C-alpha cells in the first residue's frame, strides 16, 4: 500500500486492510527499534508539531519517532503559534507547508486538522482533536494484538464518558476490524447518533457489533478489554467535575468490575489516569469529594491485568508507522 504524501486524519478514512497495514508496519518498526537496527527512512526531512493541547505521550512519541526516522521536529506549544489567533488556519497551513515536510496537530476541533491538510500541501497527522484520536487507537490495537494474537472477535468495553475522541475512535476502529464494541455509561454519555449510525453500517459489513448499556456489570461479562479515560477533557471548565463524578462513579473500573469481566480481561487507559491522589488534580478531588481515585481504582491500574504501559510505549511505534507511510517510498518500507 502506498500512502506517501497523504494525511492521517481519522480512521473512518481507511479500509480495514489499510488500518491493519499501519499496525503491521508499526510492529515491524518496533522490532527494528528493539533490535537496534537503524531505520532512518525519512532522512533529512523536517516536521512541525502543533500542540494547542499539551501532552506527554503524544509529544514524546512524535519527537522520538521522528528522530528514529532521521527527521528533525519543531515543537510549537500553545504560546508559540498564532494559528487561529493572529493568522488564519489556512494561512498558517500554507506557511508551514513551505517550510516543513509534514505537520502534526493536537488541539480542538477536527475542522482545524482538516483545514491544515487541505491548505498545507504536505501530509498532516491528527495527534488528537475533540472528535477523534486515531494514533492512540492504532497503539491500542497493536497492544491488543500483542496480548491476544488477534483483533477480530475481540470484545472491547468502554466505561465512562464515550462522547468524545476516545469513545468515537475506539468505536470506529472496532467496527472496521470486526471487533465487538460496547459502551457502558448513562445515556447522556453515549456517542452521537451520527457517528454511531456510521459505525453500525460498517459493523454490518465486518461482523462487528456496537452496543450501548447503562449496566456496567452486564457490559463487561466476557470482555477481553476493559477501557476507560478521564472524565473531564482538557479545555473543559473545572465546574463540570461535580456532575461528572456523580454521573460516572458507577462506571469506574474497580476490582469488582474486573472480576465480573473475568481473568482473561485486560485493562487499558490512554493516560493520564486519576488512579490515586499523587497529582494536583487528584489531591484537589480528594479534598473536595473524599475519593482517592476516579475512573480507575489504583489496584486495577497497578494490577496484573493492566497493560497501560505497553499501550503507552506503542504510541511511538504506531506514530512512527503513520509518519513513515506518509513520507517514505512504499518500496523502501516494504524492504525493511
Elements, N to C (H/E): HEHEHEHEHEHEHEHEHHEHHHH
Number of strands: 9
Q: How can the largest sheet be summarized? A: 5 strands, parallel
User: Please, how many helices?
Assistant: 14
Structural shape: globular
Helix percentage = 40-55%
* Global structural class: alpha/beta
What ranges have pLDDT less than 50 throughout 5 or more consecutive residues?
none
Averaging pLDDT over every residue, what do you get?
A: 96
| N/C terminus separation | 14 Å
Name the beta content range.
5-15%
Q: Name the strands of the widest sheet in spatial order.
A: 7-6-5-8-9
The radius of gyration over CA amounts to 20 Å
What would your notes on this structure say?
Helices cover 46% and strands 13% of the residues. It is of the alpha/beta class and 336 residues long. It has a five-stranded parallel β-sheet. The longest helix has 20 residues, at 16-35. The protein is globular and about 50 Å long.
Topology overview:
Elements: H1 16-35, E1 46-51, H2 57-68, E2 72-76, H3 89-99, E3 102-106, H4 110-120, E4 124-128, H5 134-148, E5 155-159, H6 165-176, E6 180-184, H7 193-206, E7 209-213, H8 216-220, E8 225-228, H9 241-248, H10 255-261, E9 266-269, H11 280-289, H12 298-301, H13 308-327, H14 330-334
Parallel strand pairs: 1-2, 1-3, 3-4, 5-6, 5-8, 6-7, 8-9
Helix pairs in contact: 1-5, 1-13, 2-13, 3-4, 5-6, 5-13, 6-7
